[in-house]
C-alpha cells in the first residue's frame, strides 16, 4: 500500500529534527544516534514546506496601489459602471474582470456577483473601498482564473460579502466556488480596512491554492469552515474573528508532503467553532501573533471531535500566545514541539496528544514525540494532561498541568516515558495512573500523594529548612503531585503541605508507585489527521 504524502512528511520531519538535536548535542554515545526527534521552531518546520507566494513577506507593498491609474468600478443594482469597458464586462448585476491590473470597487449589489476571469499573466488587485455584495444564488466574489489575486481593504473602509440560504456556494462539486469569497488560484488579503464575510452553509473564505492574510479587520461567520487555503494558509497580520460550524482555519491538501499547512506569524485570531480551531493535513505552525480558540460550537460534522490545534504531522509553537478555552482535545499532532510562547489549554479529554493514530500496539511509537524546550505551558485536562504515544521530553520552559480527577487517566502519560532534563514541571491529578519521570531524567523531581485535595486548595513543597520550593492552587480535586525543577535535589527530603497542613514527606527521585515510569499514551480520536482515521476529507 502506498504511504500517504502526509505520513511521509512526518517521517521526513522526525528524521530532520533528529539531526537538529544531534547537532545541538555535538556528539554523544551510540544510543543517542537513534534519536529521531527534538525541539523545532515554526520557522524550521516551515522550511520543509513549499514557500508561500511572493506577497507574503511585504504587507505594505501588497496594500499599495496607484488610485490615479486604477480602473474604477461602481456597483449599483442594475446600474453598475466602470472606467474601462475593455477590461470589465457588466451584464446586469454580474461584473466580470477580464485582465490583470488594479481595480477600485465601491458601491453595493443586493443580489449580484463580481467575477475575476483573467487569462493573461500578472496580478489582479481588487481594492474594496466601501463595498457590499450579496448573492442569493452564487458566491458574491469569485476568482475563476488569475495568475494571482490580491484583495486590498482600503484604509477606513467597511466592506461586506454575503451569500443566501440557497447559494451555490455550498456546492460539493470539484471546481465549485464553495465559499463566499472564493479563488481558484493564489489569494492575498491586505490593507487596513474591514471585511465582514457571511456564509449561510459553506466556507467563508477559500483559496484552492495558497491563501495569505497580511492585514485588515476580518470577521467571518460561516456555516462550514471559516478560512481555508487548500495548499497553505499563512496569517501574517490582521485581526481575524471567526464563527464557524466546521473548522476555523484550515489547509487540507494531501497530494504533496510540502503543502497542507497553516502558519500563524503575526495575526490576532479568535475562533468559535464546531470542529477544529486549526486543522492542517501536515503542519500547524505558530511563530508569533495570538490565537484564541473555543471548539464547542454546534458542528456541521456528523461525528465532531473538536480540537484546538489539529495537525496530521507537526504542531510547532515557537512564539506568540495560544489559548484554547474549550475543546475535546486542545492540541494534537504526530510531533508536538513548543520552544517558546505562552500556551494555555483546556480540554475535556487530552490537553496535548502526540499520536500517529495507528492504535496498533501498546509499545511506544517511533517518530511520535512531545517536546517542550521553552515557553510557558498551562494545561487543564480531564483526560491525560500531556499524552504521547511515543516519548515526552521537557528540556526547558515552565509547564503546569492540572490533570484528571479520575484514575483512568493521568497528568502525564507517555508510552516511551517522560524525560525531564531542564525547565520546571508541576503536574497534579489522579493517583491511579500517576506517572513519574524516566530514570534517565537529569532534572531533580519529587512525587507525593495528596490524599484528596480539594479544588481551590494550595499545595506547597518545602525543603528541610522550610524554604518554599513550589506552590500551586488546584483548579480541581487532585490526589497526586509531581514537581521537577532546578530547586529539587535527588535523594533529599521534602515536605508537602495542603493549605498549610502537612500531607506527605517524600524523598526526591522516588515514585509514589501509583502508575508507572512510562506507559501507553492515548490514541488520537477518530476524525482528525492525528486520529485513528485518515486526514480530513479533501474539499474541492
TrEMBL record:
<feature type="compositionally biased region" description="Gly residues">
    <location>
        <begin position="511"/>
        <end position="531"/>
    </location>
</feature>
<dbReference type="InterPro" id="IPR025584">
    <property type="entry name" value="Cthe_2159"/>
</dbReference>
<dbReference type="Pfam" id="PF14262">
    <property type="entry name" value="Cthe_2159"/>
</dbReference>
<protein>
    <submittedName>
        <fullName>Carbohydrate-binding domain-containing protein</fullName>
    </submittedName>
</protein>
<feature type="signal peptide">
    <location>
        <begin position="1"/>
        <end position="23"/>
    </location>
</feature>
<keyword id="KW-0732">Signal</keyword>
<feature type="region of interest" description="Disordered">
    <location>
        <begin position="506"/>
        <end position="540"/>
    </location>
</feature>
